[in-house]
Design goal:
It is built from four helices and 28 strands. By secondary structure, the protein is an alpha/beta fold. Among the domains are: 134 residues, Hexapeptide repeat proteins (UDP N-Acetylglucosamine Acyltransferase, domain 1, 3 Solenoid); 54 residues, Udp N-acetylglucosamine O-acyltransferase, Domain 2 (Up-down Bundle). Strands 3-6-9-12-15-18-21-24-26-27-28 form an eleven-stranded mixed β-sheet. Strands 1-4-7-10-13-16-19-22-25 form a nine-stranded parallel β-sheet, with no helix packed on it.
């Protein structure tokens, strides 16, 4: 009997049930690494990893359990990847920093678990040995996103299509960066903050807020807060601290000092601590382009 034909099926779609006529022979299973893929013999792949056509995985890459690498994906650099991550077609993950000061050092990229990298996503490793580029877990990076060197992304973050993060950006848990947004280097984005489509920021975006246009706050992310389980009392207090900082008529330093006397715990303190720690300044409501008031509760 001739050997059964080995057919490869895309790991991004369900596999068919494969059987053969001769019950004494085991069913033919599709290979986990496509024959056209190039995997360095020193790369460390869990036995459950699936690698698609024409993918390239270089020497210092480590892939955890259940990862799926789609066609034409390039995984390179000193890149450590956790479990059950999916890489769709033509992404480049772990390539060298695009910082002109980068001198070729063996810098690192670390990726957690259960992330999705859609088509043409690019993620650069860090530019210096003292820091890594880090992506946490349960994040969705949609098509054509770019994550530059030394970026830190938390958990449950969404980067929509075309979002661009410059070097040293910090994105906290559950933030949402909408399509075609751009983020300046060294900027911080707080937890549950949201950037509206095509927004640009060069200042820190406080947690729980929404930004539009350029550095212009448009209020609290009330829908996001409600979906995240924040109580009505917590949402009301955040609305009060927002108004105390941005609508009191005081300059931000004075308003912050006064607000710290009133709001001493919970999410409001998270908000104030973020603003207090800012080195670049924070996004601010812009007169003449919307009220900048927090969204009203339903």
């Amino acid at each position: 009997m001739t050997d059964p034909v080995r057919v490869w099926y895309s790991p991004l779609v369900p596999k068919p049930d494969l059987t053969i006529d001769n019950a004494t022979e085991p069913a033919c299973q599709p290979p986990r690494i496509h024959p056209t893929a190039i995997v360095h013999p020193k790369a460390r792949l869990d036995s459950s990893v699936q690698v698609g056509p024409y993918a390239v995985i270089d020497e210092d890459v480590e892939l955890g359990e259940g990862c799926v690498v789609g066609p034409h994906v390039h995984l390179t650099g000193r890149t450590t990847i956790g479990a059950r991550n999916k890489f769709y077609a033509s992404g480049v993950i772990g390539e060298a920093s695009q910082d002109l000061k980068y001198a070729g050092e063996p810098t690192r990229l670390r990726i957690g678990d259960r992330n999705t990298f859609r088509e043409h996503v690019t993620v650069n490793r860090s530019s210096v040995m003292e820091e890594d580029t880090v992506i946490g877990s349960n994040n969705l990076l949609m098509a054509h996103c770019h994550v530059a060197h030394n970026v830190l992304i938390g958990n449950n973050v969404i980067l929509s299509c075309g979002a661009l993060l410059a070097g040293h950006v910090v994105v906290s848990d559950r933030a949402i960066i909408s399509g075609n947004c751009v983020v300046h280097q060294f900027v911080r984005i707080g937890t549950l903050a949201m950037m509206q489509g095509s927004a640009a920021i060069s200042k820190d975006l406080p947690p729980f807020t929404i930004v539009r246009w350029t550095n212009s706050l448009s209020g609290l992310n009330v829908i996001g807060l409600r979906r995240a389980g924040f109580t009505p009392a917590e949402r009301l207090e955040l609305k009060q601290v927002y108004k105390a900082l941005f609508r009191s008529g005081l300059n931000l330093s004075a308003a912050l000092e006064e607000a710290q006397k009133t709001f001493t715990g919970g999410p409001a303190k998270v908000f104030l601590d973020f603003v207090l720690a800012s080195k670049r300044g924070v996004c601010f409501p812009t007169r003449g382009r919307g009220t900048g008031e927090p969204e009203e509760e339903e």
